[in-house]
Amino acid sequence: MAYDYLEMLMYIAKKAGVFKALEISTIRIAKELKTSQQTVSRKLRDMEKLKLIKRTATQKGLLIQLDANGRDFLKQHHSNLGNIFAEKEEVTGIITKGIGEGRYYVNLPQYQKQFKEKLGFKAYPGTLNLRVKQSEALEFISSLEAVEISGFETKDRTFGKLTGYKIRINNIKGAIIIPERSRHEEGIIELIAPYDLKKKLGLKDNSRLKIQK
Amino acid sequence: MAYDYLEMLMYIAKKAGVFKALEISTIRIAKELKTSQQTVSRKLRDMEKLKLIKRTATQKGLLIQLDANGRDFLKQHHSNLGNIFAEKEEVTGIITKGIGEGRYYVNLPQYQKQFKEKLGFKAYPGTLNLRVKQSEALEFISSLEAVEISGFETKDRTFGKLTGYKIRINNIKGAIIIPERSRHEEGIIELIAPYDLKKKLGLKDNSRLKIQK
DNA sequence: ATTACTAGCGAGCGAGTAA
DNA sequence: TTTACTCGCTCGCTAGTAA
User: Fold this and answer.
1) Distance in angstroms between the alpha carbons of the first and the last residue of chain A
2) Which one of A51, A77, A103 terminates a domain?
3) Which strand D nucleotides have any atom less than 7 A from protein CB atoms?
4) Mean pLDDT of B90-109
5) Is the pLDDT of residue B16 over 90?
6) Residue B84 placed within a domain
7) Is B44 found in the same domain as B96?
8) Apex CA A211: angle with CA A92 and CA A100, to 5°?
């Protein structure tokens, strides 16, 4: 299978590009891929037979470029990876009763100042808790840009760093807020927005809610 | 190296996605990847040691999901492939004296009608010949959409099919025209545009000219 | 300098089977 | 049913060297 040759194919494609030819010696390739000159020589000959590469001998070594099968294989492989990493555009969850401390934390001026600066809005004092499938949420969140909200200390205690992720909730700007040291169980995400989302959107506990990029 | 495990990693990532877990047996994987149950079992254990995957035994087989190193490796690999296939946005060449038949062919009403319909402009009667690096031109052209210009017959002779590729030349709409049975040597591409480009842009033979997507 | 053949060796494969 | 151990054998690796 072509996977046996993928590392070398990638090496050639990286150095030569998709269409250009590369003049190089088997010794050089062997060093860079941490294998022997003999193995490189044999593999390149095998790859030529499979039409993964074109290979011509020169004085200084070999002139190598991708052949049709090599290009096709890399293209196919790239598209497969593209599908795997396809970004999730939205995630839907069920509104869940929060533990109620959101209101207190969110409204602290040291946080609010940063929400305004870094997320672009002053948050309604209170968070909306959304129960989501953890794997879906991870895929969704991993496609978003993280905004760091610094922690701070008062004379009484320390308030931790938060990570914000800008989202839209029915086209209202909002954010997912994840405390560095999460107080939440897995599968629950905490939302903030400029308004009381429950009131504004007519939502109750156990309502379904969709959030988007 | 992680390349040794890439095929199996891709298999898992395709089936499970980036974060979800997959319940499957080593026998099933072995069949689909055309190898033995024992090899799958061993490789999965090795991959667990390398933190490429997480692996938990269940009654029906194994629960498998990507682990941090596996995700990182696939991501890195995907980005490498992305660079390889990054589309070329422009190519620069040297204006070259054409063989002069362009004026005649381009101005045939059977072609002109299609230029207007499919490329969006009536072509100035004459082509501009550009000498480019063949590999660069291929990379550039392969990122463009092909527009087919049909051939036709007169009572005297046959005029072949052309392939057009829409481009911009200093923001003027134009096209690369490649005759099915090319009369040109490699490394020369033929351009058409609504105007006399040489006059409009003040160009002479041997001037440098950049064309863009 | 190179590439690539031969030969010998060792890692990895898969059949058999235990758990 | 599974997974995964042992073990024999093969395939692919590298050293030596020819071309």
Assistant:
1) 39
2) A77
3) 1-6, 12-16
4) 86
5) yes
6) no
7) no
8) 85
- On whether both B101 and B135 belong to a single domain, the answer is yes
Q: Is the CB of A38 under 7 A from strand D?
A: yes
For residue B35, how many other CB atoms are within 10 A of its CB? 16
Tokens of B124: 């100035």
B27 touches strand D (CB under 7 A): yes
Cβ atoms of residues B160 and B170 within 8 Å: no
CA nearest neighbour of A122 among A130, A114, A132: A114
Alpha helix segments (H runs only) across chain B: 6-16, 26-33, 37-49, 68-84, 102-106, 109-114, 134-141, 197-201
Mean pLDDT value of segment B10-15? 96
Same domain, A96 and A198: yes
Stretches where chain A sits below pLDDT 50 are none
Cβ atoms of A152 and A110 closer than 8 Å: yes
pLDDT of the residue at A61: 85
For chain A, which residues lie within 8 Å of any Cβ of chain B, measuring from their own Cβ? 1, 3, 6-7, 10, 13-14, 17-21, 74-75, 77-78, 80-85, 134-135, 138-139, 142
pLDDT at B100: 64
Would you place residue B138 in the very low, low, confident or very high pLDDT band (cuts 50, 70, 90)? confident
At B111-134, the pLDDT tens digits run 999 999 999 999 999 999 999 998
Flag if B80 and A17 touch (Cβ within 8 Å): no
| B145-163 residues labelled b (16+ CB within 10 A) or e (exposed) | eebebeeeeeeeeebeebb
Are residue B72 and residue B170 in the same domain, yes or no?
Answer: no
Q: What is the DSSP letter of A211?
A: E
CA distance A69 to A75: 10
User: Rounded to two decimals, what is the model's pTM?
Assistant: 0.77
pLDDT digits (tens, 9 = 90+) for B153-210: 999 899 999 999 999 999 999 999 998 876 666 789 999 999 999 999 999 999 999 9
Query: What is the DSSP secondary structure assignment for residue B59, as one 8-state letter?
Result: S
